[in-house]
Amino acid sequence: MARYIGPKSRISRRFGEAIFGPDKVLSKKNYAPGQHGNNRRKKTSEYGLMLAEKQKAKYTYGVLERQFRNLFEKASKKSGVTGEILLQFLEARLDNVVFRLGIAPTRAAARQLVSHKHITVDGQVVNIPSYSVQPGQIVAVREKSKSLEVIDAALAGFNHSKYSWIEWDENVKGGKFLHMPERADIPENIKEQMIVELYSK
């Protein structure tokens, strides 16, 4: 399946929460999309709940099924809590780090900035959104791109102390990825244990 490019409000309504950021449509229509969305009373099975949790994580981070499964398999081979490690891998994606730094207002916008070669890692241009940022690396805006209005607009009023695992540096218009975040520091409302159980079936 290709990357979803349809209405984001429709997806948010399916999960009942604004997974792509503030959503006016969701506040007005807080029920499932479709002709009968407001009348559905069907009880979801345990498998359905686990599948929905995986889909929510995929949509939240903008990852396709094969990428997601590969990350899960990589996480399952590491020692520790598999679900937490999976989320850490997702958080370490370059497009997500750009989003967390406030350089872009959404992950989709961050992905576009990376793809269009506006972002550097340790001074080198990287245009692969799925690139895994390692602790100690510096993610910044490319010198030629520092005057872009879209970046200035995103950074205006952004609280750079929101995430303890990233250190902002105004001089480079970027920040250092200090360490992998703890689960308690990741704000996404994802029940990662349900994803682990789904893939373990």
Describe the model.
By secondary structure, the chain is of the alpha+beta class. The chain folds into 2 domains: 94 residues, Ribosomal Protein S4 Delta 41, Chain A, domain 1; 87 residues, Roll (Structural Genomics Hypothetical 15.5 Kd Protein In mrcA-pckA Intergenic Region, Chain A). The chain is built from 9 helices and 5 strands, in the order αααααααβββαββα. It has a 5-stranded antiparallel β-sheet, with helices on one face. A hairpin with a 4-residue loop joins β4 and β5. The chain starts with 7 loop residues before the first helix and ends with a helix. The model has no long low-confidence stretch (mean pLDDT 86).
CATH architecture of the largest domain, please?
Answer: Orthogonal Bundle
Instruction: Report the portion of residues in β strands.
Output: 5-15%
Number of helices in the DSSP assignment: 9
pLDDT averaged residue by residue:
86
The oligomerization state is single chain
CATH topology descriptor of the largest domain? Ribosomal Protein S4 Delta 41, Chain A, domain 1
> What is the assigned CATH homologous superfamily of the largest domain?
Ribosomal protein S4/S9, N-terminal domain
Rg from Cα? 18 Å
Unreliable runs: none
How would you sum up the global shape?
globular
Number of domains: 2
CATH class of the largest domain: Mainly Alpha
Helix-and-strand structural type = alpha+beta
* N→C terminal distance: 22 Å
